């Protein structure tokens, strides 16, 4: 099969050369043949494939992989559907140099905003910090974890990009999740913020597309595109970030990644799509738009990844996700491969998520929903009226300890968009350069704010929950919860903007009587992360209603006992009851509670996309 596609590409190139007339659109070239020198008219030999097959050192994983392709998924792929890619390569954006048929090197791209931080600071990754993390996997026939990237058969081009990224070894979530995904299994994975989940779902997708058999060519004139993989994320900025990461991982693999998100001109995104797409990274709203315009079809999807999956399936997004995954033309579970990732996975969301999965493996690296103990968490009692002056004290102290007199990056979370603007204004008036990101700002303003913050030019970013999830901003030294969220999971994601990739971070929360409902969960979370819990907060925790409020986790007993919801007695839907437990066991669930409401921020959902 591979040979015939190689022949097809070779013949097509030779035909074009012989006719000396360039095709109106370049012919589709399958990923494993892309980035090869163009064939001369004389040469009819297919170029060597980019991926040279499994190495003997990785026989177990590789064996599982080849097994995957003889599964029903393979039959699906070879069905004579009239689809494929709209066009070939290289005419431009999203990582391609317009007019020069050349992929832009994402590793050489310079951020034109002057970085405040040195390369050395950027590479101080200490993944030893994650070594003792308990890992639990449940499900049937769980593939064994690996210890090194060399043990995983990802293909040379991808391995080269891993080296370029300076990833020396896989993080615990990568060690476990990648072999599971390469074996073709569906996965629900929960791992702490900043622990490398993006690569954990990108690597198997890219590798799978590289090694997979190519799809049929798109008939000319049809403008619908047929991506092979779909990665959904809740915010525009996170989709952009995943796109950037995926472009690095897929550099010179021939796998093409395109991003589509709201707030940006759709025409440019349509042009990017028309140039060819293997992996589509998207926010749900913009994707629905593209599907309704019939510019994207999900018919050929082999891989579906939901990043921040619990957010994607909560009340704000669930209808859109169901529409995309269940009501359009995406292959069903068992035919496609589905991967769900987050740092938090409330049991009710797990239950919903199981509709999207087939005989999946549940992976928990660390306790489900826990924060990393790399973050020094502090809670201070601050009345509403004192919050600004208190923040000022923190910023002054930070400036005094700053690197070379510069303000360390501080991310300040507030409840409302108006509150964000007002605080930004006040900070600027008081000599602290600040910017803001929230749903009322234009996309351009949001992107500019983020860029300015990342570069250190504006070291304080005031944000609503739009910035709470997934954003990987190096050097965020301090996260301040100026207003605490209503939900402890939101707190976990917010503080997770610091203390990433093995680095230490600091998180300060302003607590007052408005936050009583969060007291119990906050105290539990801090205790679990070996943080010092002030006695007064334990008092509030005792007073708070264990099963009430909007905190879905609040309930009696240890909320950290929670694991794979299928192991609860109440589980009665689908799947197998014979769950292999390959790791540490936690306690049971608390006796009450569950999901008592949506995220506090559900009102901003549409603005996120
Ligand atoms: N194996 C590795 N070696 C070194 N650095 C890594 C490795 N894997 C990931 N990283 C880096 O770790 C940082 C965090 O990764 P990533 O953003 O994927 O975390 P995450 O688990 O998705 O976090 P969140 O839950 O906040 O979304 C990134 O800067 C990434 O480049």
From TrEMBL:
Pfam families hit by this protein: DEAD, Helicase_C
InterPro entries to which the protein is assigned, alphabetical: DEAD/DEAH_box_helicase_dom, Ded1/Dbp1_DEADc, Helicase_ATP-bd, Helicase_C-like, P-loop_NTPase, RNA_helicase_DEAD_Q_motif
Keyword RNA-binding (UniProt): yes
Ranges annotated as biased composition (Basic and acidic residues): 561-570
PROSITE patterns in alphabetical order: HELICASE_ATP_BIND_1, HELICASE_CTER, Q_MOTIF
Annotated EC: 3.6.4.13
Family, similarity comment: Belongs to the DEAD box helicase family. DDX3/DED1 subfamily.
Protein name as catalogued: RNA helicase
